[in-house]
């Protein structure tokens, strides 16, 4: 299941409580982002043990910008980021966000 987050406080709480999780920056108006979201959802449904979250860029621009700045990751949308132990370990954007690429990211970042 994919859970929506909207605030910097929610994100900071995730960094504290989750050892490892995915976050998707999702644009509500972009067809590429919709395709990435569907792949992300398929991955999350198959990998229930790994928490998966998303933010809607239009609703949470300050949070999206904060993540880009704090982790030195150029903002893109859609963009999937794997966080582990409070650090961004992997990210991909646009058509590179697939169920397979997300699964491979987990394997590469044990």
Describe this structure in words.
The protein is 42% helix and 25% strand. It is an alpha/beta fold. It has a single domain, classed as 3-Layer(aba) Sandwich (Glutaredoxin). A five-stranded mixed β-sheet has the order 1-3-2-4-5. Helix 2 (31-46) crosses helix 4 (99-108). The two termini are 21 Å apart. The model has no long low-confidence stretch (mean pLDDT 95). Pfam families: BrxC. InterPro entries: BrxC (IPR022551), Thioredoxin-like_sf (IPR036249). This is Bacillithiol system redox-active protein YtxJ. It comes from Bacillus xiapuensis.
What structural keywords apply?
110 residues; 4 helices; Glutaredoxin; alpha/beta
The mean pLDDT is 95
CATH superfamily: Glutaredoxin
Architecture (CATH level 2) name? 3-Layer(aba) Sandwich
Q: Quick one: biggest sheet?
A: 5 strands, mixed
- Sequence of secondary-structure elements: EHEHEHEEH
The residue fraction in helices comes out at 40-55%
- The CATH topology turns out to be Glutaredoxin
Number of helical stretches of at least 4 residues: 4
Give the total of domains: 1
Proportion of strand residues:
25-35%
Detail the poorly predicted runs: none
The spatial strand order of the largest sheet comes to 1-3-2-4-5
- Provide the CATH top-level class: Alpha Beta
Oligomeric form? single chain
Global geometry: globular
DSSP, total strands = 5
Helix/strand structural class: alpha/beta
Radius of gyration: 12 Å
Q: N- to C-terminal separation? A: 21 Å
Pfam families: BrxC
Protein name: Bacillithiol system redox-active protein YtxJ
InterPro entries: BrxC, Thioredoxin-like_sf
